[in-house]
Amino acid sequence: MNKWPADYEGSWTLAGAISRSGVGLHTGEFCEVRLKPSHKAGFHLSWVNEDAEPLTLNTNQVRDSILCTNLQLGERTLSTVEHLLAALGGSGLTHVEIEVSGEEIPLLDGSSIGWIEAISEAGITPALSPRPLNLTLLEPIVCHRGNSVITATPADEFRLVGAIDFPYGAIGQQIMAISLTPEKFVTEIAPARTFGFLDQVEKLRSDGLIKGASLDNALVCDGDKWVNPPLRFPDEPVRHKLLDLIGDLSLVGFPKAQVMVYRGSHGLHTDFATLLSSLCTDIS
Ligand SMILES: [Zn+2]
User: Fold this and answer.
1) What is the largest distance, in Å, between two alpha-carbon atoms of the chain?
2) DSSP string covering 180-194, please?
């Protein structure tokens, strides 16, 4: 086979186990993540050195916060899951066991590329059971929070259109349209890093957030310029916004639809994922 699946139709798992570790963006605490093959459809999470049965991840566990996506798993919360989930879903994987040692997924370099390299090292192989869902959208849907909007219209493929509009010269208005495949996710989206604003850093820190942020794991914008260039793409911010959306959709599955997002946020993505899972028909 080619290195990555051709589309999002098949069912795929890892050919071996792999681990990565690092600090979490908000807690600043060290955490290890182990990814393992699974014969059961879906992504299944458990904690290292605990006996409890792995929990199969679903959209009902998602709790959005301002800056990241968290999962409520029984009594425990797991934070900042979106870049890992984007890598798993975006690369075409459908059957994976995830073991974590802490409360927040490591940020690595602020993109999904570290997880893609880990998946690539382990290799991808066909899974033994069908994928969880193939979503088909029957009618257009609209979801908004204020003037932040996501729409989805039925299509033959999973197509994403993202637009952002920031009052900072270094970012400004950016738009990107892409018909997603695992290969395109890996080359066009996964390397795009998260970004923040120099004038908000102090406030976020005083609110107890971004304890693990550094110039090595986030692009920092200072008005008309970047504090830590070079960018990996001229439009890296809008690509990262699509990465976040892909992560937030990976628990519902990717619909055959054109999904357009203007000024997306994790809260909006989560509303959309919940609506989508309730309206789509499972044709698997
Ligand atoms: Zn992100």
Assistant:
1) 51
2) --HHHIIIIITTPPP
Does residue 103 carry a pLDDT above 50? yes
Cα 129 to ligand 1 centroid, rounded to whole Å: 31
Q: Which of 83, 240, 266, 269 is catalytic?
A: 266
| Closest C-alpha to 112, from 18, 221, 186 | 186
CATH superfamily of 12-126: lpxc deacetylase, domain 1 (3.30.230.20)
Q: CATH topology for 135-282?
A: lpxc deacetylase, domain 1 (3.30.1700)
Q: Is the pTM here over 0.70, yes or no?
A: yes
Q: How far is the CA of 248 from the centre of ligand 1 (A)?
A: 10
- Looking at the chain, the domain(s) classified CATH 3.30.1700.10 span 135-282
269 is catalytic: no
Q: What is the mean pLDDT of the chain?
A: 91
